[in-house]
# Entry
Amino acid sequence: MRRKIIAGNWKMYKTNSEALNLVKKLNIRLKKKPAKKSQVVIFPPFTALSSISQELKKSKIQVGAQNLFWETEGAYTGEISAAMIKSTGAKWVLIGHSERRQYFKEEEKVINRKIKLALQNKLKVILCVGETLELRQQNLTKDIILNQVEWGLKGLKPVHLQDLVIAYEPVWAIGTGKTATPNQAQEIHNFLREILDALVGGDMGQKMTLLYGGSVKPENAAGLFSQPDIDGALVGGACLDPVSFSKIIEAGEKTF
Ligand code: 13P
# Structure
């Protein structure tokens, strides 16, 4: 059975005190209704990683960073290394989110370097892939996804892939309220498994955890989770509300 994951990407929201407040509320809800079938991972901003990891020491919720730099250390003003992230207690890192690709011009080569560095440092990675509306309308969704996965996995050995999760996040569904339908998401997840089988072999397509992201809400979560190739969600907006996020986790408990 593949590992199921419900992840929350906080993006650039929550000061330290707000972050602690949110995580305490989430923790209380999860103590009442624990996530037994899925691993919950939250991705707060860098500034809250240490305090949140501390707060969650006895909890099953895991913590991750939203980005990292591609070099081990050095004169790179403003950047954050894998070792720094690990020292906060975080175990995960998000790489290649479409907002990083769009606003910070992160290209495939850079994303691949970041993945390698994260895995070398024993951080688990969620690699985000997805097409823009323009590319979907040109029927190029599968081409772009294939390209992003090919680049992401370049130079990785199958053994590394046990610490890698792929999240399919169609750019047109992020923050727009327009979720991909369960069928649209399922089609791409199935395609991702075909790509993994072709690129890696060893039944990797069936082994890897694949998440869907893009306007996941309590109302649409169960429909997505009931698809055979969708192993969970990477939630944006709805994870900033402990009630909505825990309802999404509960949808997983009922559906997985
Ligand atoms: P929304 O859930 O706000 O659409 O964001 C999805 C996302 O970008 C998660 O990484």
Q: What stands out?
A: The chain has one domain: 4-255.
